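Give me the fold.
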Amino acid sequence: IYSRNQIKNRIFSEETGSPVYKLTCAVDVQKTPGKGELLVDIKAWCKNAISYTLDFRHLSAEKDVTDFHDKCWRDLEKLIETEIWTADDKKQYQIGLTVIDAAWGESTDTVYQFCRQYSDNVFPTFGADKLRDGLTLIPVSKSTLEKAGCMCYRINTIKMKDRVSRMINASWYSGEMQPMFYMNFPDDLREDYFKQFTAEHKIPKYHSKTNKFLGFEWIQTQGRDNHAFDLAGYHFAAIELMAENICTRGLGLDALSWPAFWGHLEKIYK
């Protein structure tokens, strides 16, 4: 029903109960043999955290993706700071929040350096198998924050991948409202993008000595790319982080409230 980089608010409103409210960006740093690249996934969000993928881009490095001065990071800056999407109802949107996978390695300091340029809308993130009380995300340790020089978060990747897997397989029938967290995709994304959602499978995890059941974990199939799957999970964390920040800082609430968040955005975008 839509193509890449199109925001069709008239149709989206019929399917979700709202126009697009916010855009998020999730970035994966790939240090591949050679120069490397930034993989960038951009999603638009309607009421009830229903998403429409707008684009999936490869920002290739000229020399080295781990070098902060490489062109790929300037291209990401341009995307975050200047790119505008105009919807069919003339509403205009820019990226509202960006999360960048800073997985421990030679690119971590580069991600820190990039994110330090921004006050509160571009964050380094780290995956975690689980977090206390089933939380979606938490700030990293004090020592890591001091090293990073900017706010960073740990993301509950198993919880987020469970959600992505559930919604990829969810049913929806035209004429009905889409369920919360439903995921939509443009009709002109390449097939290899969708194959990445099947590049991992979930298996039980046991203690190596006692054989005690510890839970489940997601395992990547050797030789298969899983970037789109990973980034979709990071997007769910990003919209929750945005909602929590608006509720606690903007609305003065003690914690995240999805109804309050959507109600606040409805007043702005009606």
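Residues 194 and 228 are 8 Å apart (CA to CA).
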